[in-house]
Amino acid sequence: MANAYALGEAASRTTGQVDALFLFITVVSLFFFLLVEGLLIYFAIKYRRKKGAGAAETPDIRSHLFLETVWVLIPSLVVVAFFYYGYLVFRDIRAPAPGATDIHVTARQFLFEFRYPDGRSSINEVTVPVGKPVKLILSSDDVIHSFFVPAYRIKQDMVPGQYTTLYLHPDKAGTYDILCAEYCGVGHSVMRARLMVMEPGEYAEWRKGKTVAAAGTLAEQGKELVEKSGCLGCHAVEGKEKVGPNFGKQFGRKVLLADGTSVNADEEYIRESIVDPGAKVVNGYPNVMPTFKVTLSPGDVTAIIAYLTSLSGGGREEKGEKGKTLTETYGCLGCHSADGSVRVGPSFKGLFGRQVELEGGGKVAADEAYLRESVYRPQAKIVKGFPAIMPVFQGKIPEEDLSSIIVYIKTLK
Ligand code: CUA
């Protein structure tokens, strides 16, 4: 019964309950369907008007108390059984689960935003541990959407100005689809999210933020943000257009607006369109985009702009060659070797991703953020055993060049 009705594998206790109920209703209905239709055909043949026979007189049958009682009673009992069984399952699915984690879900055209108790939030992706119930508190910012988890056989409307709830009982690790099941506008068919159910250990790691991949260049961060913020639901990168303009062709271009004026699709225009999408709507597109003012920080917007810029720049792939040249240009190699030997400062070789001990105690992972800080504000974290003599490069190495340098350092495994 795991795959009854082809809605996906049994992933939750609710899956089995709902499937069993549907199977019960189907089997009982099928039995009566075959019984009634079978008798119909049988009687039609048996009592048909035979060839050459004259008109037969229909007997005058008034009533038959026993038969009437039976055909009223049996269907009534069947319907009551359907109702009662359905009620039991419904009650169990809707019953508050003790110890459930609250997660707020807000629907917007055309994405789902999740907010966790610890303050973090995510778009189109919700992560929960196996074996622990979750209470979803659902609402909508615009129109009615519907939160549907096919593998769990549960669905609940998301209504603007109102909270509805839904309990998840994740019994099996895996990734499951979440679909919007209420027609909500042009992007309805692309409004979907993922339910990530993790084993407790993996979940603990995720909560510590350790599974968060080390951030790449600004453009790479932007690409990631664009993917996880649901932008691609409405904007294709290239090829066939979705609800909104394609990303690939936009940057710097002159675009005609709905009010007849035109504007250059530059940084400020993109920023404004993310924060206040209705301000300048491109001609020929619906004014349906929600604001991302709260969801995306100014830093996020910067990264997204970097990504969009890189798209129209032909999306050049950096393999560290540019960064290598830059380390020479900026004189980094005077103090830092690329081959593991120690000069004045730590070598670049094997630096990325390593845990480094700091002067004055403590450790830090040499990730993208740490490297950035160490270049722009070297005194903030001094590696143990090295003199604090590196000059500040803030304002001297442009952000773009620093990204290239970090790409290069990453290659020095
Ligand atoms: Cu949201 Cu359909």
Oligomer designation: single chain
Give the number of DSSP strands: 14
Q: Flag low-confidence runs.
A: none
Question: Sheet with the most strands?
Answer: 5 strands, mixed
Q: What ligand species are in this complex? A: dinuclear copper ion
Number of helices: 9
- Molecular shape: elongated
Short characterization:
This protein is an alpha+beta fold and 413 residues long. 33% of the residues lie in helices and 17% in strands. β13 and β14 (363-365) form a beta hairpin.
Question: How would you describe the overall organization of this protein?
Answer:
- By secondary structure, the protein is an alpha+beta fold.
- α1 (13-46) runs antiparallel to α2 (65-94), α4 (218-228) crosses α6 and α7 packs across α9.
- The model has no long low-confidence stretch (mean pLDDT 84).
- The strands form four sheets. The chain has a five-stranded mixed β-sheet with strand order 3-2-1-5-8, with no helix packed on it. Strands 4-10-9-6-7 form a five-stranded mixed β-sheet. A two-stranded antiparallel sheet has the order 11-12.
- A hairpin with a 5-residue loop joins β13 (355-357) and β14.
- The protein has helices at 13-46, 65-94, 200-207, 218-228, 267-275, 298-312, 321-329, 368-376, 399-411; strands at residues 101-108, 111-115, 121-123, 125-129, 134-140, 145-149, 154-158, 164-168, 174-180, 192-198, 254-256, 262-264, 355-357, 363-365.
- It contains nine helices and 14 strands.
- It is elongated, with a radius of gyration of 32 Å.
- The longest helix has 34 residues, at 13-46.
- Bound molecules: dinuclear copper ion.
- Residues 107, 110, 145, 180, 182-184, 188, 191 line the site of dinuclear copper ion (CUA).
- Dinuclear copper ion binds at residues 107, 110, 145, 180, 182-184, 188, 191.
